[in-house]
Amino acid sequence: MNPPPAVKGAALLALCALRTDEAVEAVLPYLNDPQPLVRHGALVGLLREGGIAGIVVAGERLTALTTAPDPAQRILGAKVLAAVGVRTFYQPLLALLADEELAVRQEALLAAQQVCHPRLLPALVAALDDPTMRSSAMAALVAGGELMQPLLTQALADKHVLAPATVRRLVRAGGQSRGAWVIAALQPYLDHPDGEVQQQVLLALQRSDYRAQGGEIVQVNAVLQACAPRRPASAYGAPKRSVTSRPLRLC
Predict the structure, then answer these.
(1) Taking the mean position of all CA atoms in its chain, how far away is CA 242?
(2) CB 141 within 8 A of CB 151
(3) Considering all CA atoms of the chain, what is the largest pairwise distance in Å, rounded to the nearest integer?
(4) Is the separation of the CB atoms in 103 and 75 below 8 Å?
(5) Is 100 domain-assigned?
(6) 131 in any annotated domain
(7) Residue 94 lies in a domain
(8) Which residues contact 131 (CB under 8 A, 6 or more apart)?
(9) Residue 242 in domain
(10) Measured distance CA(96)–CA(75) in Å, rounded
(11) CA-CA distances (angstroms) from residue 96 to 74, 75, 99, 130?
């Protein structure tokens, strides 16, 4: 009985993991299988575990997939890149992230979450401005974490680098990443001249457990006062809370 394509693909992955470069000859014929799931398993197995010989052969096939006229083949190429998750395999994603087909671009964004190379950042930031790609682009930036720090700092320091809306989204991605690098990157911009960007800076710092100390406490208090919501009272007489009204830790 012929196993389903998904099972066959998984078996090829397992074979490569068990026999490494000794599995190359046995797996090579499956690179021509008509089923995408089988080819996917063969390619990923050879690229992960096939040694130099496996990488050379599978790499050529992967390049052919990512440059194929058929969008379905380019999507398969992006899926392989995602499954392999090797940072040095970022080059094909540069073209796929700019593909004319939305489905290809979306699959490339999913792959970018696994590849996480700094040279992908400009394309990921550009995708933030596209509502159809924004969520996946945000996830890819968050996955990259500290890799975005230089670009984030540049965007905050120079208003001509990115549009304010894009800067806000980039800051939000930093906030979702969290960590000490977020505090180091954002704390100098607590007094950012764009009020909405400033609010995102505050929220991102809050998510990273920022604690103001010394003279920073006065600065943070001033910023919180400037960002405090000035909405009319609700029907029950209490002022409506804004997400920006949640307190930062001041010490």
Answers:
(1) 28
(2) no
(3) 76
(4) yes
(5) no
(6) no
(7) no
(8) none
(9) yes
(10) 9
(11) 8, 9, 5, 16
Q: How many CB atoms lie within 10 A of CB 52?
A: 9
160-163, Cβ contacts within 8 angstroms, sequence gap of 24 or more: 162/125, 163/129
CB 212 within 8 A of CB 247: no
The answer to whether the Cα torsion of 29, 30, 34, 40 is positive or negative is negative
d(CA 33, CA 56) in angstroms, rounded, equals 19
Domain-ending residue, one of 84, 106, 123: 84
69, 84, 99 — which closes off a domain? 84
pTM for the whole thing? 0.81
Query: In the block, which residue shows the tokens 């394509």?
Result: 5
- pLDDT tens for 135-158 read 999 999 999 999 999 999 999 998
20-60 tens-digit pLDDT? 888 899 999 999 999 999 999 999 999 999 899 999 999 99
In the numeric block, which tokens belong to residue 65?
């997939």
Does 151 lie in the same domain as 73? Answer: no
> Residue 248 gets which letter from DSSP?
P
Domain count, the chain: 2
Q: Which domain holds residue 166?
A: 147-231+238-251
The DSSP bridge partners found for residue 233 are 239
245: left (phi over 0), alpha (psi -120 to 50) or beta: alpha
83: buried, middle or exposed (CB in 10 Å: 19+, 13-18, 0-12)? middle
| Amino acid present at 148 | M
- What is the distance between the terminal CA atoms of the chain, rounded to a whole angstrom? 68
Residue the block writes with tokens 């999507």: 75
